[in-house]
Amino acid sequence: MVRDTRKIVHEEARAWLSQAQAAWGIIQSQGLMSEEEFWGDDNPYLSKVSRLYEEDFQLAKLTDESDLLLHAEGPGAMHENPSLGTVNWLSVRMEKRLRALVQAISPLAHQEARAAARAMDLRFNGIAPGSLYMGFSIGQLRSSLFGMEEADADALQAIRAALQSIPIVPQFVGENEVSDGLFEALPDPALRDAAMVAAYEISPTGHKGIHTLEISAPRTGTSVGVLGQRERVVLKEATTNPMMKARREGAFTGEVREVDLDSRRFQLRGVDGVGTLRCVSKFDEQLAKSVLGKTVTVEGQYDSDASGRPRLMTVWHYRIHQEARQNQIEDDGLFGLVEE
Fold first, then answer.
1. How many other CB atoms are there within 10 angstroms of residue 328's CB atom?
2. Rounded Cα–Cα distance for residues 71 and 83 (Å)
3. Which of 25, 45, 205, 271 could cross-link to 20 by cystine, CB 3.0-4.6 Å?
4. Does 88 score more than 50 pLDDT?
5. CA–CA separation, 152 vs 143, rounded Å?
6. Which residues, other chains included, contact 158 with Cβ-Cβ below 8 Å and sequence gap of 6+?
C-alpha cells in the first residue's frame, strides 16, 4: 500500500497548531502577553508549521508522486540554490538512460519499441530542498501502441517496473564487485544489464558538485540505493564485462537496432525464437553505423531468462548479410574478440 506522505505532514502541522492554541489559552488566561505578541513572527509553533510546508511538504509531494526519487549531496546540490549545471546534468542523464532502458527491455519489434520510448511520458515532478531532491514519474502513454487499452496498461506497468529496478542495483555493489545476489533480485539478464548501465551513468563523477546520489522508488517501498564515485568505478568494470549467471555459446541472426555508443550496447531484433537480444561489444561510431539497420549474425556467449530465452549476449564475431561486404567481414569482422 502506497503511503500518503503529504497526509503525514498535514497531521503534524495540525498537531503543532493544536499545541499553539493550547499554549495561547494558558498565556491568555494569565495575561502574560498580548495576542499580537504571541502570534507574531517569533512564535515557535508557527515557525515549525512554516518549515513543514516550505520544506517537508515539498519532499512529501515528490515522494508521493514520483516513480524515481533522487537525492544529491555535495557543493553543487546546496539547500537553497543548487547549481544549474548539477540539475541539468542529472535531468539529461536521467532522461537518456530511462528512455534507453525502455527500448532495452521491450520485447516489441523495432518500430514499436521506438514508439514506446517516444510515447513514454517522462515527467519531472519538481525539486525539494534538503540538499537536492528531484522526482521523476511516468505518465500515461501518449498514443496507443496496440489499439487495446489493456495492452497499453500492461506496457506502462512494465516500463514503470523497469525504471523502479534501478535503485536495486546499488544495494548489491560491494567494495570491488557487484554481488551475485543481483541475479536473484533482477533475474532477467537484459533488464539487469540495462539497470546496471543506468546506475553507472547517473553515478556521480566528481565533476558536477555531487558527492553522493541516493536513488529510490518510493511507490515500491524498496530500500534506498546510494551511488558514489566508488560505486561508479565498480559498476564501470561490471558493465564492461557484463554479469551473466550461466554463459552459453551460440549464434543468432537479427537486425541491429538502437546502438548505444556510450554503453557499447545494441539491440538485435527479430531473432527467430528469441525476439529481442541485448548485445554487448566493442565498436566505435564509424563501425556502428556500418551495421545499424543491417541483418547480421552474431556469435558469442549469452545468458537466458528463467524460461530459457536468450536475453543478453557478449558478441565475439559477427557477419553482415550483405554480399558486397562479405569478403571483408569474413576476414576481420567488426567487433572481433571481447576480452573476458
1. 12
2. 14
3. 45
4. yes
5. 9
6. 105
Q: Are 117 and 194 in contact (CB under 8 A)?
A: no
Output the pLDDT for position 323.
46
Beta bridge partners of 213: 72, 227
Ordered DSSP codes for 12-33: HHHHHHHHHHHHHHHHHHHT-S
Res. 336: pLDDT tops 90: no
pLDDT score at 153 = 66
CA-CA distance, 280 to 297, in Å (whole number)? 14
Distance (Å, whole) CA 85 – CA 153: 36
pTM for this prediction = 0.75
Give the C-alpha separation, 269 to 59, whole Å: 41
Residue 79's pLDDT band (cuts 50, 70, 90): low
What per-residue confidence (pLDDT) applies to 2? 47
Strands 275-280 and 310-320 turn out to be parallel
Query: What's the pLDDT tens digit per position in 264-283?
Result: 888 898 999 998 899 998 87
Length of the chain equals 340
Q: Is 198 helix (H, G, I), strand (E, B) or coil?
A: helix
Tell me whether residue 142 is exposed, middle or buried, using C-beta atoms within 10 angstroms of its C-beta: 0 to 12, 13 to 18, 19 or more: exposed
Angle at 39 between CA 38 and CA 44, to 5 degrees: 80
